[in-house]
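#random but structural
TW: two for the price of one
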Amino acid sequence: MTVALRVIPCLDVNGGRVVKGVNFENLRDAGDPVELAQRYSEQGADEITFLDVSASLEGRATTLDIVTKTAENVFVPLTVGGGVRSVEDVDALLRAGADKVGVNTAALADPSLLARIADRFGDQVVVLSVDARRGPTPSGFEVTTHGGKRSSGKDALEWVRQASELGVGEILLNSMDADGVREGFDLEMLAAVRNEVKVPVIASGGAGTTEHFVAAADAGANALLAASVFHYGTLSIAEVKEALHSAGHLVRLTAGLAQGEQR
């Protein structure tokens, strides 16, 4: 069975507001997370990803009230990450309305956390968030933590292999080098990770044109995540899906396409 590609707007939230910068620096305000999530849901987003970008750095939990309000106003799956350190954190997020939970920093410190979450809630709940960049590791790709501010010394390919064996349901692969630059996804990194695991891989970091989305899909991404191009009106979800469809990829019908037309 061929599964449709997913197009996923990402809401990076800091202090209750959606922000976006370049390589996680010089953050600019992009709006209210609840309003943006609702808009994207209405425009045909397949999912919404909500990341509290400063939660791990500041040592606090994800803002549950924003998650709850967001979940009440969208009708597509919601993935939430940032500051998740325990099974109890995951339970709280699911009760607040999340469908899936992203884990990054805490899993690197204690990989067994991934297995414990999967055992309790199912692997479909667990999204491993991998913030990777070019670095001095065997594969040439290194995992970072705390919003890309700290090196882990962990090889990205070794880490995704280990995590997939522990029970993660998806991998959110974010190129820290490409993040916010809008010069395209890191296709080499994406293809390398795609070859290592069987679970779905979400490409993130670097989208600037519809051609970038198509290239990532061609490289094996199961889903395509972007932030600034959607937040600032550079591209619409419908435009991205039209480009993917024209390139021969299966996508879900959106409100921006003719009603009844199959995609």
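TW: number two ↓
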Amino acid sequence: MYKTLENSVGDTPLVRLKRLPGAACDARGNVVLAKLEGNNPAGSVKDRPALSMIVHAEQRGDIKPGDTLIEATSGNTGIALAMAAAMRGYRMILVMPENQSVERRQTMRAFGAELVLTPRDGGMEVARDVAESMRNEGRGIILDQFANPDNPLAHYTGTGPEIWRQTEGRISHFVSSMGTTGTIMGVSRFLKEQDPGICIVGCQPEDGSQIPGIRKWPEAYLPKIFDRARVDRIESVAQGEAEEMTRRLAREEGIFAGISSGGALAVALRLAGELENATIVSIVCDRGDRYLSTGVFPA
């Protein structure tokens, strides 16, 4: 039976890293696994919440095909929403800082989305403010990935159960970069219901570091879906460390991923140096091809 594109979201591979963990990790009995979310149709973990938010809003009668949707995004959610909007017949307006990679903008436009670019100095905070102003002017409906419970729900019903099944319940540590925080919130909720002893580790950028997809929000802009109690440990990662690990992930494991994935993996390997007999799962959020123009990868 043929799948629809919607039914192709999720069920992404979980692969064991062979070279990056090194002999010391193996000697300690640790296993480091990478969840390849770039295998989703639009290329990132955000395909899950994008489809979830649209489908559940339709079911509630909040939106209908033909409506205009507005969303502030740094990239991946926007691309995923643009794909989902194209599938289900919506006009999509995406508001994003102007310094995001050209590949992201081109991909959004390829799916038919309209872009509103905001000043780079204002970051995502200004993009969110502009989106809300447009909504208040009656120009469209905001699904609001930062406050919408259908965002973490996608990971509670999808990503978390997949990881539990793929590790046969052996997972001991889950590592995820934190941006909107939907992934870590939904996965944490599911995994803790299976085994409260599983350690949930969030990854944030060090002060002064700018890592696409990883944020440390000012208190006023902290996502409403975020519940600090669902994260056992928060680790900081430097921009240079995340970028170098992203390059190594491609060179040494053959996994071409984005920079937030390198940040999360750097934290996962940090844990592997401390632990024994652990099964550590790290989220690879997206693919590296949408970062080629940033200079992170050698030309």
